[in-house]
Amino acid sequence: MIVTLADGYGRVVMPHAIDRKYPNAPAEWRWQFVFPQLNRLVNAQTREQGRHHVHSSIVQKAIATAVRAAEITKHATAHTFRHSFATQRVTRTATSCFRQSSSSCS
Known about the structure:
Elements: H1 18-21, E1 41-42, E2 49-50, H2 56-69, H3 78-99
């Protein structure tokens, strides 16, 4: 991950008036982009430099390259991860409910 907060370029453009309500929010981890662009942008309002998120096609190409390199024969995309995560979460919840009394999982 490219760490740019230390360089002073990591502040993100906040939606609506959140930056006025929470002045430190643009630099907080929860608002940072997990996959930032390589190029910096200039905020037209504040003239600060920062980064935006990468385009989804870049992530999709990286996943396709990794799937080919791993010689995975099944069709796999970023959407596959979403389904895998949801399935794993349902499985864990069902297992947890099975171990506990069923009334606590309703």
